[in-house]
Design brief:
Blueprint: E1 12-14, E2 25-26, E3 32-33, H1 35-47, E4 52-54, H2 63-72, E5 81-86, H3 97-109, E6 114-119, H4 125-128, H5 132-138, E7 141-147, H6 151-162, E8 168-174, H7 181-184, H8 187-194, E9 197-201, H9 224-229, H10 233-248, H11 254-264, E10 268-272, H12 276-287, H13 292-305
Parallel strand pairs: 1-4, 1-10, 4-5, 5-6, 6-7, 7-8, 8-9, 9-10
Antiparallel strand pairs: 2-3
Length: 318
């Protein structure tokens, strides 16, 4: 087993949107990304106790890792934790595709180890899990997680690692008020039972649960998220209105409530941050304690919306 226990803040910080084309201009969500602006994000996050940064080779084909390393420059390596991923679909043809991809990530991130290393997608669990063992033994990765895996795949990866004295210590799946497949499939219960940290991504559903958008104010046309969500915004109005009201009672926003709900479910939300102001929302969300009645009400409203936001890259969890 690894000598240290996986310890994480209340919220992890996602850098998917940092992996744009690498040219000056707009990031994926239309947010102007600059080196100084992202440095400000890092400084505010680190100062607020949000010190786990989640990235991946697949985010801009390594550009997110490079930009993140630059933004963290000057911080002691012990002051932050790095989470990145092996994506099977991007694997090379060499003798050790997993080790090779990690080596390139370490180079871009400017470090000799990754705190949390994920198998990004379950293309072939039996093939891609064993190569993690020598990386754990060498200390180049400290902890292993699996992303977008179902319960059977999680158990298989855990058995493979267990033969060498390691285990799956984290699961990262799409989980939000609108998409609770991992809960219904028993994955959250599995994680609680076995002391596995569950990381929830897309808790804000790419902005659809922030309260900023609705039938009269849709997401910007021409974007992938507009295509995915604008047609269902009218179904979400009752939910986002109630989230806004619950947040308003606490000096918070609907987005803060969506994040607080994910925390209340016992998960660690991964929230994308591109502006320093986003950190303020995470500070508010971390302090919100939703009542059982509020959680039940929000979930009932989400169920009544009757939408399916499963991504094209995701399999059914049940």
């Amino acid at each position: 087993m690894t000598s240290d226990t996986l310890s994480v803040p209340a919220v992890a910080l996602g850098t998917w949107a940092w992996g744009d084309s690498g040219r000056p201009g707009d990031g994926y969500f239309g947010s102007p990304l600059s080196e100084s602006g992202l440095r400000e994000v890092v400084e505010k996050a680190q100062g607020s106790g949000f010190t786990l940064w989640d990235t991946a080779v697949a985010y801009g084909m390594g550009h997110s890792e490079t930009v993140l390393a630059k933004a963290l420059a000057g911080y002691d390596r012990g002051e932050y934790a790095l989470s990145t991923k092996f994506t099977p679909q991007l694997a090379g043809e060499g003798d050790d595709p997993v080790g090779d991809m990690l080596a390139r990530s370490l180079d871009r991130l400017g470090t000799d180890h990754v705190d949390l290393y994920w198998i990004h997608n379950p293309a072939d669990v039996a093939r891609w899990t064993p190569p993690l063992i020598p990386l754990l033994e060498s200390g180049r990765i400290k902890h292993v997680g699996v992303s977008n895996h179902n319960l059977e795949e999680i158990a298989l990866a855990d058995r493979i690692l267990g033969e060498a004295g390691f285990r799956v210590e984290a699961v990262q799946n799409h989980f939000s008020l609108l998409y609770r497949g991992s809960e219904r499939a028993g994955i959250l219960d599995h994680c609680r039972k076995h002391g596995v940290r569950f990381f929830s991504y897309m808790v804000l559903e790419q902005g659809a649960l922030t309260g900023r958008y609705g039938p009269g104010h849709p997401l910007p046309e021409g974007s992938n998220r507009a295509a995915a969500y604008n047609g269902i915004l009218h179904r979400l109005q009752a939910l986002t209105d109630r989230m806004g009201a619950i947040g308003g009672e606490r000096g918070a926003s609907a987005a803060d409530v969506a994040t607080a709900w994910a925390i209340a479910k016992g998960t660690t939300p991964i929230v994308g941050v591109t502006k320093a102001a986003h950190i303020d929302g995470l500070v508010r969300a971390r302090a919100i304690e939703l009542t059982g009645a509020e959680i039940a009400e929000l979930e009932a409203l989400a169920d009544a919306a009757d939408v399916d936001t499963r991504g094209w890259w995701e399999q059914e969890m049940a």
